[in-house]
User: What shape does this take?
Amino acid sequence: MKSFFPKPTFKVDDIISYAELVADENANVQKGMNFQIKPEYSIFLMSVRKNAPYADEFDEKTGTLIYEGHDVPSNLAKDTKEVDQPIATPKGSPTENGKFYTAAQSYKMGMIEHPHKIKVYEKIKSGIWCYKGFFNLVDAKIVNTGKRNVFKFYLLPVEFISKRKEIILPHSRIIPTVVKIEVWKRDKGQCVLCASKENLHYDHDLPYSKGGTSLTAENVRILCMKHNLKKSDKILSFSPIFLS
Ligand SMILES: [Zn+2]
Assistant: This one.
């Protein structure tokens, strides 16, 4: 996969509806894992809610997003949580697990120059999603849980500077989904300054570029686009708007 420069519609940490997600991708994103939904990238939908079907995690030490692979379809097993997550279908073609696993291994073994790009959206609550940005797929493992084998995919957040240049973002940039869910409840799903429910965004009170943390709800709040832009103007000389 070649390096590329995406046309940014959403900013990282924008709060969007499912309809906006679908309209922007111009594709019906329904599965959690969508390999190469566009020539340049794939899509993961993630969720760490208590009743979420998969165990997606965020490693605060390394800044890695760990996305769990998917189970066999329910027509192939009585209890889909009892059997290994499949790398291939009964007919032998690769599953989404298999496609992403191969992409990660190809990169690790130096067979492809650039890591596979994955765009991530996270579910905050029913109908409410958050754009999490682009990630590099840097590793994949098959892990035994004591009961069965599951896939784990390791993703690092990436920011595009130009067509040729991308940077891996610092750990503190990522707001974990659990924090976003807590903030959503606390701020009642509206801008804390004007109570607007339109064009919302998760904002670092103290920007992460100035040492603000993403890991606790205290430094994260919901702002509408207008108030987020106002704030960005003030601190623009220190941090570009897309990093605020
Ligand atoms: Zn506002």
In short: The chain has two domains: 15-170, 180-243. The longest helix spans residues 96-108.
